[in-house]
Amino acid sequence: MKQFELEYVLHASQKVIYDRLSSASGLSEWFADDVNQKGKIFTFMWEGSEQKAELLNKRDNRLVRFHWLDSEDEESFFEFKIEIDALTNDLSLIVTDFAEEDEIDESIELWDSQISELKQVLGI
Q1: Rounded distance, CA 1 to CA 108, Å?
Q2: How many CB atoms are closer than 10 A to CB 6?
Q3: Rounded to whole angstroms, how far apart are CA atoms 39 and 70?
């Protein structure tokens, strides 16, 4: 598994974006068809299949990190980090994820599509 990082500039409020990244209701608006949460376990549902992830870390308005429970790589995770540029005040969403070397391009396309969906939900 190889780690990769993607950056998306979003023109929206930090709190509004964080709410879409850190809550089951927010994630179900753009990331999956439906999302349920029980404690630190989030269940993501897509067209009849489901996948569970554990919330590993969360910092208000800054960071959310999950680990897929069915992943064989204990070290792997996917993370959303919000950074604000000190000079321009631009907000960047940094997505960190892991994929097999030959699946990275496919994963990047999937993230591009997901973030496009997020932008649509945010109206940006």
Answers
A1: 14
A2: 14
A3: 18
Largest Cα–Cα distance in the chain? 45
Angle at which helices 14-22 and 104-122 cross, to 10°? 120
CATH superfamily placement of domain 2-122: START domain (3.30.530.20)
Q: What is the pTM of this model?
A: 0.94
Mean pLDDT of 105-118: 97
Residue 114 has pLDDT above 90, yes or no: yes
Helix locations, 1-124, DSSP H: 14-22, 24-28, 104-122
Please give the Cα distance from 79 to 66 (Å, whole number).
6
Domain residue spans in the chain? 2-122
